[in-house]
Design a protein that fits this description.
Layout: E1 4-9, E2 14-19, E3 24-27, H1 33-48, H2 50-64, H3 73-83, H4 86-96, H5 114-123, H6 126-141, H7 168-177, H8 181-193, H9 197-201, E4 208-209, E5 214-218, E6 225-229, H10 232-238, H11 256-270, H12 279-290, H13 295-302, H14 307-314, H15 324-333
Helix pairs in contact: 3-4, 7-8, 8-10, 8-12, 12-14
């Protein structure tokens, strides 16, 4: 029995097809019976010869793109990596080596099904999910995929681990037990600036305006300009660092993973868990929110484009609002400006 049947509605002078499997009727949008019949025959033929239709489609696709027949997901990873630079390129290189991708690494892109993607996602981690999404979108954007393998709504949600800021007590403990003066100053500047570890490790004395007590640099990750006014404690730390060239000449030569490894060893020795170097950014954002630092200033200090991103960093801040009476008294105590 054929799946699709031709139906005519005289009141609208339009032909429809009726799906015997779903019992639904859809308009063909035409009134010519011969043309409508050809469409019905084609739909029934497609159901009977699914595999052959895929091969025919690949022939047409290969005519416009000769590499279509041989392109694998490893080729897609390689293409993405070549378009990235700096630390972003390093992250993509690391991500492409994810063992979960071995399930599709050498599989042809046009022969990949949703079952293949789901197997990768089940085997991998949150990072696997994130980078597979980006790789999938890249392949579609390059027209290497004629259609999405997984519809947007069918991707498993990205569920990240809970993150928190380093507490002041933890920071003090880390600094007090760090014997290396360069590392100790590095952790202190992370606390005072909330900068990303690579940005802070790359700071130079020339980035500091000693008279205005400001530090200015561009974020390595986003290129956003960051300008931050420094307090007395931060200036005391800077006084112990070189007055020209890199502030952290040894740390700037290390990779982010090597600096993270040193920090991890320090945490293990102190039995501190649940934090990384990046948690200094969370700590700065939480402190800024807790003490009423204007959000637009905090965003500029951390180099965030998005207010939503900043709020995600600061969402665990415990804000204690002053009573209205206390707030009124502080306002009344302020000196009144006198017109001269």
């Amino acid at each position: 029995m054929k799946r699709y049947r031709l139906v005519y509605r005289g009141c609208r002078n339009t032909f429809y097809y009726f799906d015997t499997h779903t019992n639904k009727r859809e308009s063909l949008g035409i009134s010519d019976k011969a043309e409508a019949q050809r469409l019905i025959d084609a739909k029934n033929e497609a159901v009977l010869h699914v595999g052959m239709n895929l091969q025919i489609a690949q022939v047409y696709l290969q005519h416009s793109d000769p590499s279509m027949a041989t392109r694998t997901w490893q080729n897609v990873f390689d293409a993405i990596v070549t378009k990235k630079h700096g630390t972003t390129q390093a992250r993509w290189q690391c991500a492409s080596r994810d063992k979960a991708f071995n399930l599709i690494r050498h599989r042809k892109v046009v022969e990949t099904t949703s079952e293949h993607f789901l197997a990768v996602l089940q085997t991998g981690t949150v990072a696997t999910n994130l980078y597979l999404r980006r790789t999938h979108h890249f392949a579609i954007g390059m027209h290497w995929l004629p259609w999405p393998i997984l519809p947007k709504l069918h991707w498993p949600p990205l569920v990240y681990k809970e993150k928190r800021g380093i507490t002041h007590a933890e920071h003090e403990q880390i600094v007090q037990h760090e014997k290396n003066p360069e590392l100790r100053a590095f952790y202190q500047m992370l606390w005072h600036t909330g900068g990303a570890q690579t940005d802070v490790a790359s700071l130079k004395a020339e980035d500091i305006d000693w008279q205005d007590r400001t530090i200015t640099y561009r974020r390595r990750k986003t290129g956003v300009l960051v300008q931050l006014t420094l307090g007395n404690e931060a200036m005391k730390v800077l006084d112990t660092l070189p007055k020209s060239g890199p502030l952290f000449p040894r740390l700037i030569e290390l990779s982010a993973s090597e600096r993270a490894s040193w920090f991890s060893h320090r945490l293990q020795s102190l039995e501190i868990t649940g934090i990384t170097l990046h948690c200094y950014r969370y700590a700065w954002a939480e402190r800024a929110r807790q003490f009423g630092y204007p959000e637009q200033y905090a965003m500029q200090a951390l180099g965030h484009h998005s207010a939503a991103v900043h709020r995600a960093y600061a969402k665990k801040a415990k804000v204690k609002l002053p009573s209205l009476e206390e707030f009124e008294n502080k306002i009344l105590e302020l000196p009144i400006a006198v017109n001269q």
